[in-house]
């Protein structure tokens, strides 16, 4: 007899119902029903009880940049945001491009508030030339590879990576996912925001939408050639969304994510010259925001990701060209998705929980329906609670949220990680 | 645009750009400039208007001319000056921009005149400090005192800018002079045409009060003023133009081309010129060239700006009595 989540509205991929959920001592769901009795009740009245959220794209900065974030603080931020699993990006220092660093990340993640799922670089040092030991990394349990922060520029290198990855399916048990940060750097170099009316007016060098779109186009073409399983990270332009829509209609095994900032903010935000609004890919136009929302609505974009990218105050106080790109996301994603994605509740949870869980190969323990014997990775949130965003109040070591002062609706009350309440009444316990 | 840009006239705190200013703001500065131009013609061109105030010249990017112009302006107003240049700085030792600004402020600077290689840096500094901030050129963004001195020079020769046809020729893309000039000249009633190859224009001109031409010869005989921008010699290495030779042939103001300008048309250049590239040496030295007037007027305009930001009395000559 363990914890009972009492009086909530359970919403999962099966539908919804008002039931109690009992958590067993083994960290799994023991029972779902009414009038359940346990040792401890967690009040869920007025709340949604859902499978925990899964982020396909989190920069936890460890090892290497512990001033900005650690796995401990990033996972705490994640748990407060309703996440139970975070895919850690490999642009660490050293790069997560070998089993030793993967094991280090995993070990640091063991006591954390979320499950930390290391991804690994596609190329050694993310330099775009030599393949990482993908077979060895697959044997170590890595299912997603990405050079995120940059895209693989050389089409021949990308072709070989795709070809090689298709031979590892049996070793992993499912296809290896190659996740691409689409950006042709020859076109984006010298650009620090979206190229357009605002960059021209502000005198800031721009990154054209085409820098992203050319690589999306190339990788769709190469996926058709090789049959590799490609995931497009942080799609930000209308044309990118349209190309992925077409590729899916043609039956190619591609998936895509969009970040919360790409459906809530535009390049106009850069007018104050505060690099808190500098991010790659950059904030784009109203039309692109509308296209991203449309892509979410029709399922072209499978998942909402955060691209949580902590940076220190010092780093973000540099001039716009020198400040590093990226913004916090883990503690605001659910609220922003509920209010701004255009998706209904079930659609929001599909994009934040069960679809990314499936893409990351975590469906056995995250995102699944709330049923007896499933691992109890759950989040409970009050969809009507309002709160005001404050970077300083966040659990992240950094404070670079672009939503400072925004009033948002929807707040996490409890998060359970393998049955253990890591967030209770909005307070982190781990 | 965010409220921190432009001339925050209500508070009267900063001069960050022409963007955000109204025609009345510009005209007021130009009128005050008249007073300082008169002071500049006196045997002892100095007034006590800003005695006891400190003007910090914070130049992260080197610009001897603009720095000397501001320094002269500050001294003619009897202000003390502090000079910071990036070469002498601890920025290379990892000191942050914000620390640098706070240190300079702590020396008692009342106004920070900032030149920086990146757009928006003065705007950021204005968010951090309670000193007044003057943008002395931020990357490829704005150079508001240049636009003011250009407008003053045009007005000096033509009475008013209303209805004037002004071409700005050259590397508009990288030009803070052009961005500020377009805004200032059009606010004052001029019609501005940008003349450049497409690769040297900003990617978007949405909302810009300008026309565009790729053919200087096509419009030259209808101009009241021809503003030639400095051409950076490395632009052909950036792949933006085939060669300086082709650029000069199509967009340079040669003596032959200058002959086609209307008789009373003026020639401007922000300096320093590249003789034989964007402008022929004899054209730059011609009588209709007002390039040296621009330099002289720069001091008067900058005196007016510093005085309006820091002065507490309406007339600079009254200060001694007021104190």
Q: Please name the CATH topology of the largest domain in chain A.
A: TIM Barrel
Write out the CATH superfamily name of the largest domain in chain A.
Metal-dependent hydrolases
Strand content of chain A: 15-25%
How much of the sequence of chain B is in beta strands?
A: 5-15%
Describe the structure.
The complex is a heterodimer of chains A (430) and B (323). Chain A contains 13 helices and 21 strands. With 430 residues, chain A is α/β, with parallel strands linked by helices. Chain A folds into 2 domains: 3-48 and 374-394 and 404-428, Urease, subunit C, domain 1, CATH 2.30.40; 52-359, Metal-dependent hydrolases (TIM Barrel), CATH 3.20.20. A 7-stranded mixed β-sheet of chain A has the order 3-2-7-18-19-20-21, with helices on one face. Chain A has a 5-stranded parallel β-sheet with strand order 11-12-15-16-17. A 4-stranded mixed β-sheet of chain A has the order 5-4-1-6, with no helix packed on it. The longest helix of chain A has 18 residues, at 209-226. Chain A is globular. The model of chain A has no long low-confidence stretch (mean pLDDT 97). Chain B is α/β, with parallel strands linked by helices and 323 residues long. Chain B folds into 2 domains: 23-142 and 296-322, Aspartate/ornithine carbamoyltransferase (Rossmann fold), CATH 3.40.50; 144-295, Rossmann fold (3-Layer(aba) Sandwich), CATH 3.40.50.1370. Chain B is 37% helix and 14% strand. Chain B is built from 12 helices and 9 strands. Chain B has a 5-stranded parallel β-sheet. In chain B, α2 (64-76) links the parallel β1 (54-59) and β2. In chain B, α5 (144-158) crosses α11 (291-310). The longest helix of chain B has 20 residues, at 291-310. Mean pLDDT of chain B is 91; it is low at 1-11. Chain A binds chain B through residues 195-197, 199-206, 208, 271-274, 314, 317-322, and chain B through 1-2, 4-5, 19, 96-98, 116-121, 123-124, 127, 138-142, 176, 179, 202-208.
């Amino acid at each position: 007899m363990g914890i009972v989540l009492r009086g909530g509205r359970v919403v999962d991929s099966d539908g919804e119902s008002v039931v109690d959920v009992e958590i067993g001592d083994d960290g799994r769901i023991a029972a779902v029903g009414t009038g359940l009795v346990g040792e401890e009740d967690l009040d869920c009245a007025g709340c949604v009880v859902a499978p925990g959220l899964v982020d396909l794209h989190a920069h936890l900065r460890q090892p290497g940049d512990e001033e900005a974030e650690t796995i401990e603080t990033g996972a705490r931020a994640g748990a407060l945001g309703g996440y139970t699993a975070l895919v850690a990006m490999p642009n660490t220092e050293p790069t997560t491009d070998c089993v030793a660093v993967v094991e280090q990340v995993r070990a640091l993640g063991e006591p954390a508030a979320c499950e930390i799922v290391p991804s690994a670089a596609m190329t050694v040092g993310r330099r775009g030339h030599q393949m990482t030991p993908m077979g060895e990394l697959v044997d170590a349990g890595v299912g997603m590879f990405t050079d995120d922060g940059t895209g693989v520029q050389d089409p021949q290198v990308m072709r070989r990576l795709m070809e090689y990855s298709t031979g590892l399916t049996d070793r992993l048990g499912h296809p290896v996912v190659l996740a691409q940060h689409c950006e042709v750097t020859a076109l984006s170099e010298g650009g620090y925001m979206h190229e357009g009316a605002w960059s021209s007016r502000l005198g800031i060098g721009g990154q054209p939408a085409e820098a992203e779109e050319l690589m999306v186009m190339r990788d769709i073409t190469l996926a058709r050639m090789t049959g590799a399983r490609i995931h497009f990270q942080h799609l930000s332009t209308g044309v990118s969304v349209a190309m992925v829509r077409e590729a899916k209609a043609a039956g190619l095994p591609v998936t895509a994510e969009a970040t919360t900032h790409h459906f809530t903010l535009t390049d106009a935000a850069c007018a104050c010259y505060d690099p808190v609004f500098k991010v790659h890919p950059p904030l784009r136009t109203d039309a692109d925001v509308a296209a991203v929302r449309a892509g979410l609505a029709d399922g072209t974009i499978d998942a909402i990701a955060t691209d949580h990218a902590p940076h220190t105050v010092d780093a973000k106080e540099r001039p716009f060209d020198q400040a590093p790109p990226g913004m916090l996301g883990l503690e605001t994603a659910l609220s922003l998705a509920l209010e701004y994605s255009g998706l209904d509740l079930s659609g929001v949870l599909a994009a934040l929980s069960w679809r990314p869980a499936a893409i990351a190969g975590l469906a056995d323990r995250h995102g699944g329906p709330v049923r007896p014997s499933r691992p109890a990775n759950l989040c409970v949130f009050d969809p009507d609670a309002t709160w005001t965003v404050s970077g300083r109040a966040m659990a992240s070591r950094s404070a670079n949220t672009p939503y400072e002062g925004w009033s948002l609706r929807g707040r996490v009350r409890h998060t359970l990680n393998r049955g253990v309440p890591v967030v209770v009444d909005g307070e982190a316990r781990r | 645009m965010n409220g921190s840009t432009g001339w925050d006239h209500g508070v009267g705190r900063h001069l960050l750009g022409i963007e955000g200013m109204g025609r009345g703001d510009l005209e007021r500065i130009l009128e005050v400039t008249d007073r300082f131009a008169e002071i500049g013609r006196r045997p002892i061109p100095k007034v006590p208007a800003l005695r006891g105030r400190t003007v910090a010249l914070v130049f992260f990017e080197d610009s001897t001319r603009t720095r000397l112009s501001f320094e002269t302006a500050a001294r003619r107003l009897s202000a003390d000056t502090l000079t910071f240049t990036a070469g002498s700085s601890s920025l290379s030792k990892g000191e942050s921009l914000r620390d640098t600004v706070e240190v300079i402020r702590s020396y008692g600077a009342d106004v920070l005149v900032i030149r920086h290689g990146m757009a928006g840096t003065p705007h950021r500094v204005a968010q951090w400090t309670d000193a007044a901030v003057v943008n002395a050129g931020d990357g490829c963004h704005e150079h508001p005192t240049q636009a003011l001195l250009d407008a003053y020079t045009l007005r000096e020769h033509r009475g008013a800018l209303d209805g004037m046809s002004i071409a700005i020729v050259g590397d508009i893309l990288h030009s803070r002079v052009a961005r500020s000039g377009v805004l200032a000249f059009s606010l004052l009633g001029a019609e501005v045409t940008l003349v450049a190859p497409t690769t040297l224009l900003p990617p978007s001109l949405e909302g810009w009060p300008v026309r565009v031409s790729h053919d200087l010869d096509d419009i030259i005989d209808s101009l009241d003023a021809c503003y030639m921008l400095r051409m950076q010699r490395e632009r052909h290495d950036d792949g933006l133009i085939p060669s300086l030779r082709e650029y000069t042939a199509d967009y340079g103001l040669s003596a032959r081309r200058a002959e086609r300008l209307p008789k009373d048309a003026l020639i401007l250049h922000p300096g320093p010129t590249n003789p034989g590239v964007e402008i022929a040496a004899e054209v730059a030295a011609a009588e209709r060239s007002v390039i040296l007037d621009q330099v002289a007027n720069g001091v008067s305009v900058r005196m007016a700006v510093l005085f309006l930001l820091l002065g507490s009395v309406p007339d600079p000559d009254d200060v001694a009595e007021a104190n």
